[in-house]
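Provenance

Sequences were taken from public entries as deposited. Structures were produced by running a predictor on each sequence independently, with no templates supplied. The record for FAD-binding oxidoreductase from Bacteriovorax antarcticus is shown for reference.
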Amino acid sequence: MKTKSFYSFPEVVAHIKTARPTLFHSSQTSTVIPFEKLDGALGSETVLGNLSTIKGNLEMLSNGNLKVTGFVTWKEAKEFCLQHGREIMTSPTEELAGVLAGIATSCTGERSFGFKNLRSQIVELTFVDYEGKDVTLYADRKLECGIDLSTYQADFAHYKLYKNAPYPRLEFETDLMTGTEGQLGVIESAVLRTIEHFPETFIFMLLPRWEEDFKPHLEVFKAVQNFRTQVRACEFIDSNSLSYLPTEKNPGKNQDVIFLEIRKDEFEDIYENLLSHLTLINEDQIFEMDATKCRDLRVSVPRAIFERNSQMGVTKKGTDVQVSPERFEDLLNHYREMGKVGVAYNLFGHFGDAHLHFNFMPTPDKNDFCNAQLESLYSKVLEWKGSPFAEHGIGLLKRKFIAPFYNDHQKSVFRALKNKYDPKGQFFPEGFMTC
Ligand SMILES: Cc1cc2nc3c(=O)[nH]c(=O)nc-3n(C[C@H](O)[C@H](O)[C@H](O)COP(=O)(O)OP(=O)(O)OC[C@H]3O[C@@H](n4cnc5c(N)ncnc54)[C@H](O)[C@@H]3O)c2cc1C
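Predicted structure for FAD-binding oxidoreductase:
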């Protein structure tokens, strides 16, 4: 595998001018690109181009927008904003991922419940195109790229309320770089909206195991939908996921957890108007947890699962499915059946958005069996018109599974975009747009 690290954008420009096929990357936290075993997955000429060595810069603009240039992690951006009394609205669980990479993957996270996804927070961005030129795109300008997008847009309309559709939005200029996974150019900088910071708190609810009874879970799901302006995140961690943590970190006893992020000064209001109306969860099963402890818990779960998979030598077998609220019960029922097939599993994720990560924890001999289970889930998701990969993108690992979600409208737009913005086929040529 050929690798190259870049230390400045002029170096990136010089490399782009050589037209060598390149998979540019940042922190390599993508769960859909197997960075640890890429040999054979990329073309023999493809270079792995490291952008995380480009020194980042953060600037708080006078209007409260944040300008990010080069390699900056979400953690750094978040801390920088807090120093200015501001908050970034996107909060992916993996805080060491790059902000600009987050645009490339149309990253979301727990706060998408209250603040929608990153796509809606981008004001403008600049990318390096195939000629090595800087191109600036604006979020308030319709995308006019000389390609007929009308049928593509008509198909996309169904997914407007989803965090991410099976294919990028392509409605405004900035969409060209959002969720296109670096297949049309290299993002160099971006301006993101931020909000004034108010201290937050977390409300934890202990529930029975969802496999046995998910009526209380559904009661919370329905109740929170009317509180999207106050509840910033509504997250779920099941008892199986929590079992990977040391006992002292586990807030339940063989129980599931749903937690809500709210502003501290809105606690009374939320208690009175939302929590006190829940009929299936006892008050003694509801408690407050401070932000640091909650964050620690939240990050520990996917990391523990990742480590366990690495120890077993298996690639993650997880889902990233979002369905409409009407189909949420169907999704939970389907996951319940997947839990009965004899492979260890766990479930966690963005409960309020009907977007959950079901993870098989297979031994290597169960790899193909789990893939078959996932394929059968994706055919259901297609039937339900849900979004199969609403957060982590397609990369290389999901290409096979996304294929049935594309018709000729998407394929011809992808081809036209690649011809126009990547005529030499140099930007991540193994990505989903080459179909
Ligand atoms: C424990 C864990 C939790 C996670 N939680 C979340 C979550 O809550 N929400 C979420 O959305 N994702 C999550 N992810 C997935 C991952 O963190 C995101 O996809 C993230 O955006 C990847 O960022 P990165 O810097 O690691 O990019 P990489 O993995 O290095 O690259 C990802 C993609 O972005 C492209 N890319 C990177 N930088 C650029 C650039 N400057 N210009 C153009 N293209 C570029 C690459 O070509 C590649 O296609 C999680 C992953 C892990 C391991």
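The longest strand covers residues 200-207.
The domain at 201-384 is CATH 3.40.462 (Vanillyl-alcohol Oxidase; Chain A, domain 3).
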